[in-house]
Design goal:
Layout lengths: L1 E2 L5 E6 L3 H13 L4 E6 L36 H9 L18 H17 L6 E5 L3 E6 L4 E5 L4 E4 L1 E4 L21 E2 L5 H5 L6 E5 L3 H12 L5 E6 L27 H17 L7 H5 L3 H7 L2 H19 L4 H12 L3 E14 L2 E8 L2 E7 L1 E4 L14 H8 L19 E3 L5 E7 L14 H18 L6 E2 L1
Parallel strand pairs: 2-3, 2-8, 3-4, 8-17, 9-15, 10-11, 10-15, 11-12
Antiparallel strand pairs: 1-18, 5-6, 6-7, 12-13, 13-14, 16-17
Helix pairs in contact: 1-3, 1-12, 5-10
Length: 473
């Protein structure tokens, strides 16, 4: 008789949004030995996080459903799930589900349901639990890591994964005077804050990217009929997504650019070539995306920072376009003369009774405007861990378990995601996925990149587990 002796490998995942839930799913689906998985997440439902917790049907996934399957080997898995589950979840199935952009709440339901499926079908001796609390402290050791939660629960694990997602920025000094004003929406996804603005005659929207699109869609759904003034520092404005074919692989026939300037030059040349041939420039990001990671990882910090200062905004509006339905709402508002956008810089906001006075620097000069309401559409993009006011993040930095990435984006780690401590030691049992790795892998905020990271992370963790040798008796 052969008796197999397996010790359960314990894994704690801190953060139960998309990245954390997907990591657990990939571990459970791939494990041939029993695992003990714990997710620490204050929210009641796993898989939603910030992005997919919204309940507003007008907040859509910014891409076609056919590319967002949780299983790259089954590209139509999400489409089939939408066809089977969309109507029951309040979504009217479009004629072409594959090219549709489903509501984000529905995508969150998909992630949640797939995690629950993986839990049900996991190895018979595997265990899974969800601790509804926040992590408060982490202490690492070569073979075990101790995690303490805010409610005092202590867990010891063989592996810990940081899947902390994004953090909302604190109000900037120029916004602080109106931070608690009832006509200021600090968060464009705060339903109560938006409800208070429905009767406004004109709203100032700070930022012109996807958060602005969500804000306009939300206000229109509420019946708002006033005007929008949209300002951004460079005056760029997010476009709607067209289903263009990928441009030719123009980076394959040359050494990859090593500077931000040379990359910009190559992209501009290709865009001119596309225009001359009568093509659609929206195929260009599809050709660039496979090279984003090698371009970023081969660049030095000087070039990465130069990209962040000068080209990041251009990349964001080029690569991250709005869903066709969302863009249709924005374009309809523009056509009615209700939305204007321009390059301008906000200098400050001041309470003015039940209204707000904005000091704005435009290309025409400085001006002041009294507004009925203001929505901060800069989004949740606070990636500098030195500025994040979260007790757990602060404890990780103070204890030296992690160190900020040299670019100021996220934390330092190996290309594989193993975290590097303040003293330069590589943690072999402490990893990160998603947003904390923005400095290591620039597009680590996207669904497709986090899917790739989760699969690779699950394989690395499971590869460490060596079952005990079978004993004959």
């Amino acid at each position: 008789m052969h008796i197999d002796h397996y010790a359960k490998h314990s894994i704690v995942i801190i953060g139960g949004g998309f990245a954390g839930a997907l990591t657990a799913l990939k571990l459970l689906d791939r494990a041939e030995v029993p695992l003990s998985i714990t997710i620490i997440e204050p929210r009641g439902e796993l898989g939603r996080g910030v992005a997919y917790s919204t309940t507003e049907p007008v907040h859509l996934v910014n891409g076609p459903a056919e590319i967002f399957s949780l299983y790259p080997e089954e590209s139509h898995h999400l489409v089939r799930w939408l066809e089977e589950n969309g109507p029951a979840n309040g979504w009217q199935l479009p004629a072409d589900a594959a090219m549709s952009s489903p509501p984000r709440y529905l995508y969150g339901t998909y992630v949640r349901d797939e995690l629950n499926r993986a839990i049900r079908q996991a190895h018979a001796r595997s265990t899974f639990r969800h601790i509804r609390s926040a992590a408060a402290k982490l202490v690492s050791a070569p073979h075990k890591i101790s995690v303490t939660t805010a409610d005092g629960t202590s867990i010891e694990a063989d592996e810990v994964v940081l899947a902390l997602g994004v953090f909302q920025a604190e109000p900037l000094p120029r916004e602080a005077p109106v931070a608690s004003h009832f006509r200021f929406a600090a968060n464009p996804w705060d339903p109560a804050a938006l409800d208070r603005l429905v009767d406004c005659r004109e709203l100032l929207l700070i930022g012109s990217s996807l958060s602005m699109v969500d804000a306009v869609a939300s206000m229109e759904a509420r019946g708002y009929r006033g005007k929008y003034r949209v300002i951004s520092r460079r005056g760029q404005f997010v476009e709607g997504r067209r289903n263009a074919e990928a441009a030719r692989d123009f980076l394959a026939d040359r050494p990859l650019p090593t500077t931000a300037r040379s990359l910009l030059s190559a992209v501009k040349a290709e865009r001119r070539a596309i225009a001359a041939a009568g093509g659609d420039w929206q195929g260009l990001p599809l050709a660039i995306r496979p090279y984003v990671l090698p371009l970023w990882q081969q660049a030095n910090d000087q070039e990465r920072l130069r990209f962040g200062r000068h080209l990041r905004a251009f990349w964001d509006v080029t690569a991250h376009r709005s869903a066709p339905e969302s863009n249709g709402t924005v374009q309809a508002v523009i056509a009615k003369g209700r939305l204007s956008h321009e390059a301008a810089r906000l200098l400050g906001l001041t309470p003015c009774g039940d209204r707000i006075e904005a000091a704005i620097r435009t290309r025409r000069g400085d001006e002041r405007q009294i507004l009925d309401g203001v929505i901060n559409c800069r989004g949740h993009q606070l990636h500098d861990w030195r500025r994040i006011r979260d007790p757990f993040v602060e404890s990780l930095l103070d204890g030296g378990e992690v160190r900020p990435h040299s670019t100021g984006f996220g934390i330092d780690a190996t290309p594989e995601g193993d975290i590097i401590s303040e003293e330069g030691r590589i943690h072999r049992n402490l990893s990160a996925i998603g947003h904390p790795l923005r400095g290591v892998a620039w597009e680590s905020s996207s669904i497709t990149e986090q899917r790739t990271q989760a699969i690779a992370l699950a394989e690395r963790i499971l590869g460490k587990i060596t079952p005990a040798v079978s004993v004959a008796s």
